[in-house]
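Pilot study result, target chain (364 residues):
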Amino acid sequence: MKKFFAKFLPFNFQDFWLSSAILAGATVTCAILRHADSEGEFVSLIFVLAVMLISRLTTGYLFGTAASLVAVICVNYVFTYPYFAINFTIAGYPLTFIVMLLVSIMTSAMTTQIKQQEHLRAETEKEKARADLLRSVSHDIRTPLTSIIGATSTLLESGDYLSHDQKVRLLEDTRSEAQWLIRVVENLLSVTRMGDSQTYIDKKNEPAEEIVGEALQKFRKRFKTIPVSVSVPDELLMVPMDAILIEQVLANLMENAVSHGQTTTHIWLTLSSDGTDGIFSVRDNGSGIPPAQIPQLFSGISHSSDNRTVDGKRNMGLGLTVCKAIVQAHGGTITAYNLPQGGAEFIFRLPLSHTQPNSKEVSR
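Predicted structure:
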C-alpha cells in the first residue's frame, strides 16, 4: 500500500504550490474575462486547461485528480448562478466533473509513462557511455603495457647483444609509455570523481594565468620541442575553479593537439574574458579533426571512418571525456571545431563572478 501511494499519489510541496498557482491563475483569468462575457461559457474550458497543465507538470495522479475536483467546485460555486452557492441541479454538472476527471487521469498517466521512458532512456545512454568508456580505457591501457613488456623483455633476453644507444632508446620508450599510463590513471580518477551527479566541486577564485602556466610546464615535460604561444589578460583574471582539475583539462587538450594533430608544429593557448565567462582556447596547426568524429568527440571513444583508432595507437576519447566532465561540473561548456586555415581549436568557458579585462600575447 505504501508503495502504491509513493508511486501514484506522491505528495511534495513543490507540486502543491504549483497546482495552487495554476488554479489561482485560472480563477483570476475567469474573473477578468467574465466582465467581457457574463454568460461564462469559457469558464469550464479554462479550468479543463488548468487541470491538464497540473496533471502534466506534477508527479503521479494526486494533484491532477484533486485539481479536477477543485475546478468543478470552483466552476459551480464561483462562476455559475446562483453565485457562491453549490447547485447540484445545474445541467451538465456531472458531465463537467467526469470530463475533468478523465482529462486529469489520462494526462497523469501519459506524463508518468513519458517520465518512465525518459528515465529508461537516460539509464540506457548512461550504460552505453560507460561501455564506450570501458572500451576506450581498455585500449589506452593495453597498448602501452604491451610496449613496456616488449621493451623490458628485449632488454632482459637480448640485452647483451644490444648497443648502448639501442638500450637507451628502449628505456626512453618504456618511460614514455609509463608516463602515458600515469596520465590514463589520472584521467580515470577524474572520471570517477566526476561520475556522480551530486559531486561537489570546491571552486575558489584562482588566478587563471597561473593555472595556464602550470599546465604549460606539465606539457613541456613531455613535448619540449613544440612551441606554444600564450595569450593572457593585461590584468589578473580570477576564475572560480578547482585549480588542479582545470590544469588537467588544459594539459589534456595540449597533449591531444600534438598526439592527434599528427602534423602539429605550433600551439596557441589563449585566456580571455567576455565579462561573463573566462574563456580558455587551445589551438593548433595540425591536421584537424575528421568531420565524422566531431559529433561524438566527447562521448568517450572516437574512431575514424575506417573503424580504426584515431592515430593507430591510442584514441583521444578518454582524455576528452574527462575534459567535458570537469568543465560541466564547473558549470561551463566545451566545444571543438576545425579551423579554415587548418588545425583545430578547443574552447571551454567557465562562469565568472565579475567583469575582467582583454588579453595580450606572449610566446613561451
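One observation from the pilot: The beta strands are 204-207, 228-233, 238-241, 267-273, 277-284, 333-338, 344-351, 359-363. A full batch analysis is planned for the follow-on phase.
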